[in-house]
Structure formats: structure tokens, C-alpha cells
Specification:
alpha/beta, TIM Barrel, 2 domains, 8-stranded parallel sheet, 3-stranded antiparallel sheet, globular
Length: 347
């Protein structure tokens, strides 16, 4: 879709998510591993969404502290810091986020209990959102005191749930399971996705893959252009043998990973046996090099099926405004569709 006219963009789309996070539009940029830095986060937040800095981008807590300062030098709007569980220790990074008074913390992967308890014991307490792929995890996060849930469907990029449930079914199931606000994630790239998510009962959306193909993202141009060229059939799911399925863009290395996994499955290999066979190919350094240096043929990059809807590489702020304008136009069309038919003259 073309960028809509400025007069079609509402000043705000009020939901419980916008009220909770103090933002104008219920659009959240995902915590992209190795890619979610201050320039991107500030651009999304300045446009009215919620940008995020990802802890997975940094080797030391001081690097995170510097990036938080950079965001604040570029915008006075709320922003978040994303914490992925299970890849490396994040305790010292959380110390920094709390010391710096970041307004929002999101938690992805693994059990969020320990992090939530530490966050809740701190004053002032940032808002917290937990990413889940099923109703059971959503209820647990709510019971642990999370402020909102991000429900990611199986079409999303990166690590996913193990039940292969798509966004269209997962989101209303999670909405029914909890009382706190829910954001939809997975397969969302434009205003059609935002409008659909709201229709499913979500009160906001999180976009990951779409925010890679924007000008402020540090991803290599080869990666961005590959996302634009790709079709919805150009992704595959790896790491199933490790119990942590993850969606990536098709390529030579993902093909090799899948070949190894097929052999492991034939042999009935356990997870403990599979890990050393796969580890050299799935290391974060392999992903980072491909994403940042553009050597896609020598590594792997995260991508959701939403690549089929990515057709350009706009500025992040323009993308946010375009999504809102498209969703507003759709809502107006739907309102006309369901409006009562006018009474005939003389009745």
C-alpha cells in the first residue's frame, strides 16, 4: 500500500496498550538480536510507537547504558529494553536498565519469573511485557504480575513456540485466557495486520521482521534487500531437534542445518546429542555476521513469513505512520460495511 495522506493519520489510536505504555499508537518494535540499537528505537518511539533496544546487541552492561543515553538524546518519548532469556546472563544488564529508569521492559524466551520479581521490587517499576506462544505461558506471566502479553504466532521470525499455532488462532485464545492487554505478533507488516489484530481482540501489535527492512536498522543492505525480494514461502524452521524451533530465511546454511536435523531424527538422537552437532552452525556469532556483514550465504538470518508483505525499505517513522493510516482507512471501510442501511423514503 502507498503511504496514506497525512490527514488520514489519527493523532492517536487509544487502547489499553497505549495507555499502559504512554504511547500514541499501539505499535511495538521487537527486540531484534544484534539489530535493535538506539537510532531505530528512537525513530519508532518518536513516531508514536514503542521502540526498543535489545540486550542481545551488547557484550557489556556499559554498552547498554550508553545506548539508553543515545535513545534519550534523540527522543523524549517512552521506549523499551528487551531481555532474551536463555542465551547469556542478563542480571547485570537488568541492573543498568533499572538504574537508568527505563519505562518499559520486555522479556522473551524462557521463564520470566526471576526477572519479573527483580523488576517488581524496584522503584520506580517499569512496565513489563512478556512474549508467549500459548495460553498456559500467558496465564503464568499474568499470575507473575506482567503488565501485558505479546502473543507470537508460528509464522513469526526467530524462536517460536513448539505447538505450531498461527497468529489468527493464538491471539484470540490468549485474549480469552488473560485479563491484561495482549499484543499480537507474527505475520504483521502493515495496517491490515494492525486492523486484523484489533479485530481479534488484541490491543496492539509487535513487529520484528518488518522493522529490519527500515533505513535506521543497522542490518546490512543485503539482508534488507533479501527480505524485500523474498516470498512468504522463502522461510524455514530450524532447531526443532533442540526443542526450540526458529524461523529463518532460506539459504545454504539453513539447508545444511535441516539436513543435519533430518539425520539426527532418523537416528533418534536426543537433544543432548543433537546440540554439539548443530552448535557450530547456529551460534549467535554466525547469525550476527550474516546480518551485519551481509554474507547471507555463509550464515543464517531471522525472518518471518511476513517477508511476503515487505516491498520497500522506508524510514521507521514513515512505516509507523503508514501502518496507522492504513488501519484507519480499513476501520472506516468496515464501519461503512456494517452501517445500518438507510430507511427507504416514505417508510
Amino acid at each position: 500500500m502507498d503511504i496514506a495522506r497525512a490527514d488520514m493519520i489519527p493523532d492517536t489510536l487509544p487502547t489499553r496498550v497505549t495507555a499502559l505504555l504512554g504511547i500514541r499508537y499501539p505499535i511495538v518494535q521487537g527486540g531484534l538480536a544484534h539489530l535493535s540499537y538506539g537510532d531505530l528505537a528512537a525513530a519508532v518511539s518518536e513516531a508514536g510507537g514503542l521502540g526498543q533496544v535489545g540486550v542481545a546487541c551488547f557484550e557489556t552492561p556499559d554498552e547498554l547504558r550508553a545506548e539508553i543515553a543515545k535513545v534519550r538524546s534523540l527522543t523524549d518519548r517512552p521506549f523499551g529494553v528487551n531481555f532474551p532469556i536463555g542465551h547469556s546472563p542478563v542480571d547485570h544488564f537488568l541492573d543498568v536498565a533499572l538504574e537508568e529508569g527505563v519505562p518499559v521492559v520486555t522479556i522473551t524466551g524462557g521463564n520470566p519469573e526471576a526477572l519479573l520479581k527483580r523488576i517488581q521490587a524496584h522503584q520506580p517499576t517499569p512496565r513489563t511485557m512478556v512474549l508467549v506462544a500459548g495460553t498456559r505461558a500467558a496465564r503464568k506471566a499474568e499470575d507473575l504480575g506482567a503488565d501485558a502479553i505479546i502473543a507470537v504466532g508460528f509464522e513469526g521470525g526467530g524462536h517460536l513456540g513448539r505447538d505450531d499455532i498461527g497468529t489468527m488462532v493464538l491471539v484470540p485464545r490468549v485474549v480469552e485466557a488473560v485479563k491484561i492487554p495482549v499484543l499480537a505478533s507474527g505475520g504483521i507488516a502493515d495496517g491490515r495486520g494492525l486492523a486484523a489484530a484489533l479485530a481479534l481482540g488484541a490491543e496492539g501489535v509487535e513487529l520484528g521482521t518488518r522493522f529490519i527492512a527500515v533505513q535506521e536498522n543497522v542490518a546490512h543492505q543485503h539482508y534488507k534487500e533479501a527480505l524485500v525480494r523474498a516470498q512468504e514461502t522463502d522461510t524455514v524452521v530450524i532447531e526443532r531437534t533442540l526443542g526450540r524451533p526458529a524461523r529463518v530465511l532460506k539459504g545454504a546454511l539453513p539447508d545444511k542445518i535441516l539436513e543435519i536435523e533430518r539425520d539426527l531424527e532418523k537416528r533418534g538422537a536426543s537433544r543432548e546429542e543433537a546440540l554439539p552437532a548443530l552448535l557450530p552452525y547456529i551460534l549467535g556469532t554466525v547469525n550476527k555476521r550474516a546480518a551485519r556483514e551481509g554474507v547471507l550465504e555463509e550464515g543464517f538470518v531471522w525472518a518471518g513469513q511476513v517477508v511476503g508483505l515487505i516491498q520497500d525499505i522506508p524510514a521507521a517513522g514513515d512505516l509507523v505512520r503508514r501502518i496507522v493510516a492504513e488501519a484507519a482507512a480499513i476501520s472506516q471501510r468496515m464501519a461503512r460495511l456494517f452501517a445500518p442501511a438507510p430507511a427507504h423514503a416514505g417508510e
